[in-house]
Structure formats: C-alpha cells, structure tokens
Fold these 4 entries.
Entry 1:
Amino acid sequence: MKYLGSRILGLLVLLLLLMSLTACGSSLKSSNHVDKVQGAYKGQELAEYNMYINFSNHVNSEFLEAKANYFAYFADDNLNYIKQNGTKEIVISRSEQTHQCINDLNEILGNTPSLSLEKTTQNLLPEVKAEIEILDEMADYYGAKEYTKDHFEKGKKLHAELLKTNQTTNNHISKFNTEFDKVAKEQDLAEMEELKKNGDMVSYVFADFILKAEAVNLELEKQNMNAANILKLDTCAYCLKYDELVNSYNELERVTKDEEQLDNSGITAADITAIKAKATKVEGDAESILDRVQSKDDVEEYALGNVAVLEKIIGTPEKLAKSFKELDSEYTNFIALK
C-alpha cells in the first residue's frame, strides 16, 4: 500500500467509523409493506413498524452523514475544532427528515407502543433531536457568516457541545440498530414465508436476494473492510456469504425467466427489468471485490479520501454498498407495483 498522509487517513477512518454505525442496519429498509403481505405485524403494529423503518433509514443516512460531513470539515484527527477560511462558503447539512421521524415516533410513544423498541427509542430520540438542533444552529451561524464578527467563537462553542454528546449518541444509535435489525429480520422472514405461501415466487426470490446481498455487506462491515484495507479481506468468511448470494442470484435468474411464475406473481417481464438490472449489478460488484483481492490490486491513493469516487471504483466495498442501496430502493418501487 502506498504511503497515505495521516490527515487524509484519519478523516477517512472517522467517516468510516460514523458510517459503520449502520452495520447492523446497513440497508435502507422498505416501509412499503402492503396489507396483502403483512408478515409478523398487522394493523397498528405494522404502522408503528413502518415508522421505525423511516427513523432507522434517516438517522443512519441523513443524520449520521450530516455529522460525518461536519467533522470532516471542522475537525482534525482528534476531533479538535478547526477554523475554516472565512472566504469560503460554509454549508452545514440539516436533518429535517430525521427530525420529522422523531416527531412521528414521539406521538406513538406517548400513546400505546406495541413493539419492543420503546425503551431504547425513548432514550435515543431526545439525544438525536438535541444534536440536530446543534447542527441547525451551526447552519444558521455559518450561513449568516456570523463567524466574521466573533472570529469563530460561537462555532467553537457549538463544536464543543456536539462533541460532548457525539460518542454517547453514536453508541445509542448502534444499540438501536442492533435491536431494530432483530425486529426487522423477523418481519422480513415472515413476509417472505407469506410470499412463498401465496405462490409469489418472483417477489420471493428478489426479497431473498436482497437479504443475501445485505449479508455480504454486513460481512464486509464486520471485518471493517473499506477501500484502504480491502486486500486484508478474510476471503473464506466472505465467500460463505458470497456463495449464498450467487445461489440466490441463480434462482432469481431461473424464476424470472419462467412465464408461469411471472403470471402467478401478477407481473410481466417488463415490470422487473429495472430491479433485475440492479440485482445483476450487486452480484457483479460483490464478485469484483474477490477479483481485486485475488489479484492484489490496491485502490489508488488519490481516491481513498473521497467516498463519492470510491463508489465508482470497481472492486471496492463502497461501490457494492451503493449498488445495494440502489437495489433496495428499486425493490420499494417494485413492491409498489404489486
């Protein structure tokens, strides 16, 4: 591996640390659970479950990414505050959708919650809300260029406030992810069982492929893999999950070419064109990681500090993660057709 400056590597580690909080819930879960396939939850429980999905999706993407971007811009390797050049435009991301999810969940928790996540969520919601308010205040402060009047004094104060709660909040999000993933896994398996029972094998094979693809991503996250260290991948552990993905993809190929199965599922070959393309991309990106490791091909140094670039480079965990999110999003569109 070529030498990488400690500043770039430190920020990369920070960004990956924040992103890894989603390891137990890395996929953006679909909240489009229709009545005919309700799985484990029904009625009010199903509505509550969908609200938890929305919160999980936004807190693990919008909110954590907002914090990661802030620290990458305003902190050194030890998260100490860094003053930015006052001539540059400074933009702090807001987490409006996460904030709305908190309001929605608070209404449920104030009434009669029915799922087992109540205690964990009640502790977490005020922590996330408080940090969103800090980030919003930062956005107002830097947006109005108040730092030109007080020489970044308020910026330093807000940074200290965020830093004070940052680790605790991150730990509680990680705990929530672990607990929610258990609930979500039960729901996913129950839904899949109903799909099979109803003879909807096309939807079943796509759902199964998504679960297998998620398992591959989780294995990479379990090993703390990223573009910088991908050549250290434990290929034996990875292949256990990858082989299951390939088997699932082969079954997906078989079922989606079966006209009778398409008819039983009430869809046409045209309906699955987009989602099948996304699935093919995921399978290919998972294979490309093995190819890179086996050929001992380092990711070029220039790309290591830029996630947007890494998401386009063949054979990186970042590219696979992006492809998986696109697949999961397309699955939501596919379910809407049903």
Entry 2:
Amino acid sequence: MTLGSSAALRGSTVAIVDDDEFVRAGLGNLMRSIDVDACLFASAEEFLDEDFRLYACVLSDIQMPGLSGLDLLVAVKARQPDLPVVLMTAYPDARVVERANREGAYRFLEKPCDPDELVALVERFVAPAD
C-alpha cells in the first residue's frame, strides 16, 4: 500500500527506533522535555508496521538486530519518500555514511548525539505545540 507523501499529511510525533532500551528512553525523555510526543520502537520491524503518516520524522539507530537502520531507511523512502529519517550510530564508517546519504537520509549523527543538535533537527519537522 502506498501512503500519501504530502508533508501536510505528516503527523507531529517523532518515531524513535533503537534496540538499546536506555537510548530509546533517553531520546524519548529529550523529546518530552521540549513538549514533543515520541513513540519508541525496539526494532526496525516494529516501526515498519506503523502508519508513517503519524510521524513528523524518524530517529533511528543503524546497528540493530534484524533489519538495520539502513534497511529501515530504504523501506521508509519506498513508502513515504518525504518522511525525514535521521540515522545515528556509535560506529561511523565512511561506506555506511555514503550509503545513508545515497538512500536519502536527512542527516547522519554520531553517538553520543549532541542534544542541542538533535532538538534543532526535530524542531524543523514538528509543528509547535499549542
């Protein structure tokens, strides 16, 4: 099923995909601290079952069991090309960065991520709360 790709249909929630429970929780807490709703997913497979229109952007780890963050990126771009995907990893590799850029990642961040940089990125995609 192909979903609409209009940014106007985009939700205001951030999807956080990371197999590390503490990273997921930390990123979720960071989003809540700026009054942004977040849904937390332990795997790419779990997120890919979702309706992408609910989300303003996706923050995903790259190295996860099962589907990787790069696999998630490819699947998201096939279904909703305008949904921004920010990939994060503690183990950057030039080939991975090049592939992420080629596949349409909005940004590639090294862990640990700078919270201010992450907040600035998310605020580009999420409408201000009323």
Entry 3:
Amino acid sequence: MNKIAGKLEVSRFEIPYRLYGSSDKLMVCIGGAKQTMSAWRSFVSRFQTEYSILVFDLPGQGRAKINYGCMGVSLEEQVDALHELLVRIDAQKYSSRYLVGGSWGSIVAASYLDRYPDLFNRAVLGSFGTRANSVLQVIIDQVQSYIEQGRGAEIAPLMIEKFGQLIPEHLKRQIISQFNDMSEEQYASFYEHSRSVTQMGDLKQHIELSSIAIPVLVVMGQFDTIMDLFDTRKATKMLANGEFQLVKGVGHFLHWEKPELLETYAEFFERTAEESQHCSAN
C-alpha cells in the first residue's frame, strides 16, 4: 500500500497527516473532538484500493501541536488548517474529491464546504448536529469540572457511559487509553474546545448551509443521545442537495458500531447525479 507521512506547519500549528493509496479519486476524513487519525483505520482498510485517503490530526487533536498562543482552537483556524493541508497535497489534481466528517469533524466539513464550495464533489456528515442538546451540555459541564479538578482520566468513562455504550470493547479501551495519555496542554485544549461549543450556540448561524450545493449525506444513529433529531433533520433540509439517513440500532459512533455502514458510504460516493436527485427528493 502506498503511504505518505508528513507534517505541515501552518500558522501556529503543526499538523501530522497520512495519505494512503494512489487512486485519482481523493477521500478526506475529518475526525471528532480529540479523535486521532487512527479513528479512520477501517475507512483506510475498506477504501484504500479505490481512493487515495487523507487522514490527519486537526489543531487541538491527537499529535497535532500548538506551537504558541492560547490552547483554544477556533473553528475558523481548523478550517484554515484543513485548506492549507489540501493545498499541500494538491487536492485539485484528483479527478474527484469526497469529504467525510464525523461528529465535530462534520461541523468542520460543513464549514469548509460553505467557504470553499467548488473543491469537493460529495460529502458525508456523520453524527452532524449544529447545537448542543441538553445531554451534551450536561456532559460538557462535567468534562470541564473534571479538568478543573485534575480528574481528566475520568472523562473517557463518562463519555462511554453517556454516548459510547454501543462501541466494541477494544475501542472503549482505546478511548480510555487515549485520555489517560493526554498531557496537561491537551486537556487544556479540550477544555477550551468544550467552552467554544457552548459559546457558539447554534452553528446554523455561523455556517451558510444553503450555499452548499453538492450532494451531502447526513447520517445519524437511532440511539445517539447527544444529537438532536429535529435539529439534524432541519439542518439537512437547509442543504441544497441534502439527504438524511437515520441508522437503526446504532448510536453516536456509527460505523464503529455498525461496520456495514461503510458500504452505505461507498454506494453514496458512486452514485450518478440523477440517482442523487432522486434520493434527495425522497
């Protein structure tokens, strides 16, 4: 398997990335808050023969470094970093380009599509929500309290209890290990991220969803406790060519809980324009 490993210095950040495959079709994957690029391992395994796949750690996540300035990273800074990374790999050279975002990564993806509407052909927004529901707000408050008290290791069990019950045991252990290994700076960055989610309020006020013209598949799990079904459906309807899919039997982590979802994404990426119009109409 062809693999390029690199680091990008952009603004005040150092962004590690991996580019797998040699196809002229590009798939770009954006993870959720504190997820590392390893979260996309199953995507790489499934799609590496058909697509070139870009994975990376956003500023404030994984092994990305904040070289100076505050520990908080704004949505705008994350979008800027993503754009610079796409320039670095010359994303324009690929014959077709697809964007996949999960959880907070879906917000970054939507914001990017709003700002740069002409680069990608299709997008999947997984566990996409534009404002914190009551359950997520309670979790955010507890996370902030844990960090303030130096009890950061308790965050992972809290997250698993509240919205990660359905993921496999080995992935639960991976999340716990990740939080156990986080530095004080990484906890501080996570704290600032949780504050910004609350302060930004309804992200539909910051992202012009109606300006996103490409086909977008919005996916939500039936048992997702931290996304608001009404809000996600409303956001999907604001997209010019949006399609909503509620997946039965899964929660927030989607293909981690139901690997067969990767085939749903594969089918969506390969649809013709006429097929997309039919699905959106329905």
Entry 4:
Amino acid sequence: MAQQLLTKVTEALDDKKGQHIEVIDVSGKCSFADHIVIVTGSSNRHVKSLAMEVSMVSKKHGLIPLGVEGMDAGEWVLIDLGDTIVHVMQPNIREFYQLEKLWTVETDT
C-alpha cells in the first residue's frame, strides 16, 4: 500500500506541474518514515495547490494525512503521510535548506 500511495503522490505532483520531484529512501536512516518526497512549486499558490493535491490523493487511497504544516505561508508545506513525508517548497526555500543533501549524505562506519 505504501509504495502504491508513493507512486500516486508523485504522479499527482507531476500532473500538477510540480518541479524537480525527488524521492529519497530513508528507511535505513530514520525511524519516522521510509520515504521523503521533495518537490518545488513556483509560487505560494502553486505550493499550496500541490500540497492540497497530495492530501486529496492520500484521502482517496484511504489515508488521512497525520499532519499538514505551513499552508498559511505557502513557502514550505510539509505533509505527513506516515511512512512518507512530502515537502513542497518554493525554489529559494529548497535551495536554502537543501534537504536532499541532508538525507543523501553517506556516513562513515
């Protein structure tokens, strides 16, 4: 079910013109999620629209988001889908925080 939802979410983001969609497998790196999806929206309105689409797609598949943060500002919206966390960000916010680098850094063991 989780993989199907992940696929539906990324397809919906692509359909709504989300940019630079990246899916990161964090299953071995953290305990709170298996995947992180990061997508760029071109404006506050676009970010909010993408976030609302993710929420609607998840509800259609029987999963009510556990939490949604940042809808008021529309610069960075986080949608918690349990096993999947979705970050919808404006370009300047995404560039500043560089979440991809945070989650793809390999540790020396």
